[in-house]
Amino acid sequence: MYQLRHIILPFNSLRTFSSTSVTCWKCSKQLNIRLEGNSNIMQLYFCGCQHNVVLSPTTNTDYFQLLGFSKSYEIDKRALARSYRMLQSYLHPDKFANKSKLEQLYSSEQSSLVNKAYSTLAKPYTRALYLLEQVGLTISEKDTGTGSDPSFLMRIMELNEVLAEHPSRDTLVKMKEENEGNLSDCEKELIVHFESGNYKMAKEVLGKMKYYHNLQDNMEEQLMS
Known about the structure:
By secondary structure, the chain is mainly α. The chain has helices at residues 63-66, 77-91, 101-121, 124-134, 151-164, 169-196, 199-224, and strands at residues 16-23, 30-36.
């Protein structure tokens, strides 16, 4: 079960990652971990010593590194899901039911961290939020995303008024399709802005995306009722 140091998970690029370190609680060895290219991501989770025990979570590793990816908004969702499933197949607490209390604790913490990382990166909106947070930017209620387009909020208000009247199912389906197109356009813009490092514009697009997501939730709720 613990012979993991030769398992390699897929990376979405060959960029160099930062280094981190952790001390194995079993053998007391200081592990200096450098994730570079297609390095073995499992070294973040298991010690390569003879004990092959699960490690305590590192404190300075970002969500992308935890799942074996370089930091980028554009991501292979299928590869992300494969990496997540692979990690959970080794880290899930059920795998440690007969191990020491400490290993049970660390496996639970690692599994929970991987869950959180995956749920954040799997969704375009939360992935963008996370990337902005990494450079010290956050989205607040005041961030409308209107920028140089003052008609945006008016259009959102009009759509909300239509939804408040509980339109027909056909109308809802058409509105939902249009809104999904708007979300797709936002994602394409975010790819460009994050790639170029234009975080100000990325934040503006994300502000608009927030409204589109609220509309989407409303439409889906009505379609399910």
